[in-house]
Design goal:
The chain is built from eleven helices and 16 strands. By secondary structure, it is an alpha/beta fold. The strands form four sheets. The chain has a seven-stranded parallel beta sheet. The chain has a four-stranded antiparallel beta sheet with strand order 3-2-1-16, sandwiched between helices. Helix 7 links the parallel strand 8 and strand 9. Helix 4 packs parallel to helix 5 and helix 6 packs parallel to helix 7. The longest helix has 20 residues.
Length: 363
Amino acid sequence: MTISSCRIFRYRLPLTGPLPLAGGVIHERRGALVRIESDSGAAGWGDVAPLPGFSRETIDAAELELTAWAERLRGVEYNPPGDSLESWLECEPVRVPSAAVRFGLETALASVSRQSVDGAAAELTSFDGTVPVNGLLAGSREQVLADAGRLRDAGCRAVKLKVGGRPVVEDVELTRVVRDTIGDGVALRLDANRSWTLEQAVAFGREIGDSGVEYLEEPLREPEHLRELFDATGIPVALDESLLVLRPDDLEGRRDVGAVVLKPTLLGGLARAREWAARALALDIRPVVSSCFESGVGLLALAEFAWASTGDAVPAGLDTYRWLGADVVEPRIPFRSGAIEWNAATARGRRIDASRLSEIPHD
């Protein structure tokens, strides 16, 4: 089988409100879709959306990289049973693609493979399952509490509260109120985005010790002290940014780690994230698949990855989708009872909204 074409499309999606990120605030989500088609007519879409302040590459750099890949992929032999960029393509990459580009290329190739091997009719993800979604709580105290009640009533099995942006005493109080609001039947996860010193994190952890926290994600400015934090508080930590400088085997013996947050857009694609998920599960550590405010194309790929990794056992961090004021997938992806329910019937009739795209020409 041969790749007959690789096309790239730019998109800009409005957000429902200003989104504070490391290093600034964004008001729209910029990204690129890649569409790969084989000589058999099988085709698939991938999403390339570096996250400002977190990704090492910018969207402008990613577009240039995609253009180079599009030119060299045309006419390349394609191996459908593969599960990574290297195993799908019978060629040696000139250099390793950036993380976001690899995620987009692997997602598109996976869709082509699914059509070629399974005869799937849809170019979008077509897994059959229900992926529970971890609701995201961020913003003002009033917004957090309003969303906590809404997500509880919507059936979310887990919520993640952003902490670290307020004085510790206020974060303690808000954590307790959120716990009271969602009740004992909803898992409570916390994310501090490396905001605290060890002393601040210990003080916080000791104060909220009876609040039933599932894990505390990346709490420390100096993550080398995470084991000390666990020893002092007994609260498991979740690794996110730390994964960029670790290997899956580094999880061995980490009693302090309760979860790893897997973001293929940052980690370097589906194959890389799959390695982390497999190692985590072998060590009884939760692999939590999470998004980076990708479009619906990327979100569906993440939902499929989460379903393949843990089924409906671990709520995935896909609630970022509600920050998008519009999407390239039309109609929008439905969330019901705190989950994404996806099957052939759900996928039928959904399409890529071409009015949201502008093609990037290349030779």
